[in-house]
């Protein structure tokens, strides 16, 4: 199938682009992409989650500063999480399952910390614990030509990756919904001890490793789908 056409939603004072798949009355899942990508990155996974016999209504927004969404010039992860909260409200979603990859995972766990009632279940794909980088990540050099994202977003997210707000760490215990953390294994660019550390900070979180590198859902889609479906289909909240 072709990628679902993006449409726009007004959320948190900006315009977000979003793509949706699956029956309108099916249980909702929201997929949040990594830095530099957009909602289309999830197309293959979204199509599979939206298909019978257990279809889901799948939504994949472009985060602010990415793709067809607004590029407002300010890209704190906290603001991105509020964008997603406003998107959930605009789409009429109550208690959605949220899956976040990398930067999208940071946005997802901040959303879960700040508004736990907005989520039913949480999946974090290859996301590290919010610990300062030592040594810090040096300033990135902008590549030439047009980019599908705002370069200011790279600067802002690098700054927060180098020195995350300590509140992120201390509020992990506010994540009260069932949570699955998926690590990409030893070939990932994310230190896997920090992925395990993240899982240990979230009460009751499960940790599964899929030896696929950082792009688990892209490199090993069948294994990714199997562990995510099994987790989302468990009875209860």
- The CATH superfamily name is Alpha/Beta hydrolase fold, catalytic domain
| Cα-based radius of gyration, to the nearest Å | 16 Å
Average predicted local confidence, pLDDT: 96
Distance between the termini: 31 Å
Number of helices: 8
**Helix content percent band:** 25-40%
Second rung of CATH, namely the architecture = 3-Layer(aba) Sandwich
Helix-strand makeup class: alpha/beta
**Overall number of domains:** 1
**How many strands, which pairing sense, and closed or not: the largest β-sheet?**
8 strands, mixed
Number of strands: 8
Shape: globular
Q: What is the H/E order?
A: EEEHEHEHEHHEHEHH
Percentage of β-strand residues? 15-25%
CATH topology name, in short, is Rossmann fold
**Low-pLDDT runs:** none
CATH class assignment: Alpha Beta
Strands in their spatial order, largest beta sheet: 1-2-4-3-5-6-7-8
What are the salient characteristics of this protein?
alpha/beta; 8-stranded mixed beta sheet; 8 helices; 8 strands; 19% strand
Describe this structure in words.
This protein has 8 helices and 8 strands, in the order βββαβαβαβααβαβαα. By secondary structure, it is an alpha/beta fold. The protein has one domain (7-232): Rossmann fold (3-Layer(aba) Sandwich).
């Amino acid at each position: 199938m072709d990628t679902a056409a993006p449409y726009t939603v007004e959320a948190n004072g900006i315009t977000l682009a979003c793509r949706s798949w699956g029956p309108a009355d099916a249980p909702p899942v929201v997929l949040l992409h990594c830095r530099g990508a957009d909602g289309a990155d999830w197309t293959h996974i979204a199509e599979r989650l939206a298909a019978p016999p257990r279809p889901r209504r799948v939504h994949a927004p472009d985060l602010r500063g990415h793709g067809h969404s607004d590029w407002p010039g300010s890209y704190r992860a906290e603001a991105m999480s509020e964008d997603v909260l406003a998107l959930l409200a605009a789409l009429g979603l109550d208690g959605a399952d949220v899956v976040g990859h990398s930067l999208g995972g940071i946005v997802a766990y901040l959303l879960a910390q700040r508004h736990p009632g907005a989520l039913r279940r949480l999946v974090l794909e290859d996301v590290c614990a919010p610990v300062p980088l030592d040594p810090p990540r040096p300033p990135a050099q902008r590549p030439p030509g047009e980019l599908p994202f705002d370069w200011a977003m790279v600067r802002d997210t690098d700054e927060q990756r180098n020195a995350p707000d300590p509140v992120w760490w201390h509020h992990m215990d506010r994540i009260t919904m069932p949570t699955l953390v998926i690590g990409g294994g030893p070939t990932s660019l994310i230190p896997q001890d920090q992925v395990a550390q993240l899982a240990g900070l979230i009460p009751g979180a499960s940790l599964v490793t899929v030896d696929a590198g950082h792009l688990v859902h892209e490199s090993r889609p069948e294994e990714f789908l199997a562990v995510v479906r099994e987790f989302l289909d468990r009875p209860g909240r």
